[in-house]
Structure formats: structure tokens, C-alpha cells
Amino acid sequence: MAYNRTIVLSCMLLLALVFGAYAYMTKQAAAPSSGSDSEAGGPPQPPIVITTARVLSDSDLNKMKEPDTIDDNPITRWSKARLGIDPSNMWVLADEAALEKKLRLALTGDEELPDVLLLNNRVLPRMLEELAASGRFADIGESFERYASPRLKEAYALNPDVWKTVRANGKLWGLPQISDGKVGDPILWIRKDWLDRLGLAVPATLNELTAVLDAFTNRDPDGNGKKDTFGLALGGKNSLNGWIGDASFLFGAYGDQPYQWNRMPDGTLAYGSVQPAMQDALTVLAQWYRLGYLHPNFGTHDELTASSLFADGQAGIISAPGWMGGWPLSEVPDWMNKFKPIPFPSGPDGKIGRRGSEISYGSYVFRKGFEHMDAVFRYFDEVYGALIEDPASDFVNGFAENYDYKRVNGEIVYDFPGKTDTISRQFLVALGSTPPGVIRESLEQRVYRGKVDTPYEKKLAASSSKLFLEGIIVGDLQLAYARKNEFVGAPGPKMRAKWPALQDLEKKAFLKIVYGNEPPDSFIAFVRDWYAYGGEEITREVNEWDRANR
């Protein structure tokens, strides 16, 4: 279905907030709610003008339906008619780097700022202290308490750690979006047809997985008479725990996750990449590489290359989010007979673990002196409605007719030429994804078991493949095993000065071990150097932040 690709391109749209490439999750991005008092006396006349900045690619702009523009489209018209809010695009930029540069120049030159800005979770930490010190942005704590609806307050109460992403000097310098595990938590995808052809069972332990990797590498699983397959698609160019083609299942099987700050048994934060469990996992990964289970050039492969290796039939297993069942896998011929989502396997001591999605992929910051926070929270609440399946939502069928849905002979349809969810990027503010803990049984779980009663259930049922639903559900089964990065604040002086060199040290040390250029016990020297070259100071700095934000 065309919507499978749309769902996952939506997922990748929000991930661009994360990796500067795609911005994920417009699948769930917005809708209005009941409980708003916007109708009391009608919307303000004339409409309240709220200025903003947008990051829009050429693709986003090209998908506008004539005569719509970024200044006049179904979302802006809804906003004016429903809420009396007229969004005005003060800045329109091509990417997040351009937005960061524009903002820094504006602060340096005392240039006028938009009323509201969305800063992603890469830009915001770098700029948080600067924004707070500039005197040009607002502490939104009082406004949240005064204007947020009860159901918005409930969402943040259930996910209080998101406030850590915007807190500095005891104040809240932004309104964070809330993420859930569907955004990036990985599962394993496996070639079901290869398992069947070789008479293998789905692996449930690391030892069983190793046996499957060997068979997928050496027993001609595709039946073409050639030794041209690999067991595992791994992307090592950016890290060994990227957003597709990661090894977090292996690290988790030994009890930790690298490239992030993890909560230790004594309550402190420690960097995962220098923990003893990493040596065990890297030792196994090096063995897999030596035995040919990985592509010989995996260290030059990014996430999309790893994805292609699996989708194109060169590799038999990949670790990736559940939404991969929508795209690219549901676009592969005979996909239902080829691919299967499975849970992560347990390690030697029964441990299971995976990297967790970020708790927030971006936050809205507001110009100091902005006088319409009440209007923003009214808008925010209206958009939140569709995320919690509000039957009164103006977006109950979709974001905009002729964009992501159509009416044909009185029926709503979701699969048609030119369908796009990118119109949802025109919202002034949106929560991101359905906050964890708000809905008892997920929409995907209900639809998969055959409940198709509400408009939301009907939309998902009509526009999603069975494989997509299965992937999301398998991901939900292991939410408790996700380990999220515990350090989500602004980097301190030591981290700003020394982190790039430590990251380079880390990347080279890991790849040398996996490639066999250094023995596994060289990890000990790496850990020693990491602490000596600034890691010890940074660890103290991170824990000072942690104690201040508990």
C-alpha cells in the first residue's frame, strides 16, 4: 500500500530531527481535542498572528496541492477559522543546520525573533544555556501551569523526564515534545523464507541466533547456488547503534548499551561504551566478522545501506524499528512470505536489552514578551486530540482532505496517487507522538486483533500492511527492555571541549576490535585513555547535572 511508505517516511521525517536526515512520525502527528474552550464566544477577530520558523525541504514544498502554499493551506485555514490563530512564517529554512545558524546570528545581531521556534534534540542542547542567558526567551513553567489543559498536564505528568531537556538554572526554557518507543526502539527482522528453506526455528537466544547467522552465511539460504549472503546487516559508519542496522541486541544481551549515559545500580550515570560488558559484546562481534557473518565493508555502511542489504536479499537479519515493516519491506515483492519481526534474543545470562528512543526529539521555545501563550496551549491541546484518538477531533479522518485522505463516493479512502502526510508539518505546534502511558492498548494492537470500529482504527486498518502492524506489536512486547539515554541536558564546558576527540577515539577503538586489527583486550587500553583524555571530568560533569535535575 502507498500508505506503508507514507507512514515510514513520516517516521523518518521525525528522525531527521535526530540525525539531520529525516524527521520522523507524522503518522501520529496531530489533531484537535474536546475540552477546548475555543468555541466560547468564537475565535478571536481579527485572528492572532503568531510568527514562527519552519524547516522545510524542497520535497515538502513540492507536495503542496495547488493553489495551497506554506502560508495558505488546509492547516493554516483550520487554525484561523477554528482558533483565531494566524501562523506567519518569519523564517523558512532548508535544514536544521541553517536554522541553528540563523538563530545564532539573530541573537548576536539583536535581530527580531519569531514568537515560537521548534529546535530539535541536537540543536537545543548545544544552544540551551545560550538561549537562557540571552534574556530573549521565556521561561514557560508558569504558562504551562496556567494554560495547559488537564489532559496535557496528565501526559507530562506521566513522562516527567522530558522537562530535563529544557531545564537550565531552575527554569523551563521550552515546551518539549514527547516521544514513545515506536519512534526508534529496534527489534529483529529476519528472512522467514530463509528459515523455512533451511528448516530453522526462530532464534530466542544469542547462541541460537549465532547458529542462524552461520546458516544464513554458509548454507545458500536463497538457493541460488552462490555464496553471496551475509547473516547480519550492520551499519558501522556512524556508530554500532544507529537507527537502522544496529547491534543494540548484542550489547543488551551482555547488559549495557554504548554511546549513551546509563543509570548504574548505585544511582549514578556512567557512559555505556566504557563498561566491561562492551568488551564481551565486541568480542562476539569480532568473531562474527571473522566468520563472514557481516559484510566485509560494514564499517563504511550507513543506516540506509544496511537497510538495503536486508531488503534486497543480501543479508538475512537486521535490527531496526518496527515501522520497517511498512517501508521498505512492504514494498518488496512477496513480502509476507519473506520477512518476519521477532523479539531480541536473550544473552548468556538471560539478559535482554536494546537502545531506547529519545525521550524527546525537539522542543518549542518562545520569545520573551510573547503575549499569547494561552492561544498556543489551546492550539497544542487541539492538535493533541488525534494522538489520543479524540472522536471530536477535526482531524479524525486525517490531516487534510486530498492530502492524506479522500472522499470517493461518500467513502473515506487512504490509498491514492499523490497521497502525502507532509501537510502535517504545517502545524504551528504538535506533541510529536502518543505519550507513553496515556492509552492502555495501542491502536496497532487493536487493529491487528480485528477491532476496526473508530475512525482511527479504520484509517490504520485501511492504510497499513499486516507486516507493519506486526513490527510495531513486537516492538511493544519488549518496551521494558529499552534503555534510554539518561543524559538529555546541555553539554557542560568539559564535554564541549573534549567530547569530539573522545567520540573519535571510541569509534576507532570499536572498529579496530571488530575488524580484527586489535585484540578484544585492547578495550582495556581504550577505557583507560577515555578516562584520561577527559572522560573522568565529563563523567563528574554529567553527574552534577543529574543531581541538579532529579
From TrEMBL:
Top-level lineage group: Bacteria
Keywords: Signal
Family annotation (InterPro entries): Bact_solute-bd_prot1 (IPR050490)
Secretion signal, residue range per the UniProt entry: 1-23
Name of the molecule in the record: Extracellular solute-binding protein
Organism, as annotated: Paenibacillus ginsengarvi
Lineage: Bacteria, Bacillati, Bacillota, Bacilli, Bacillales
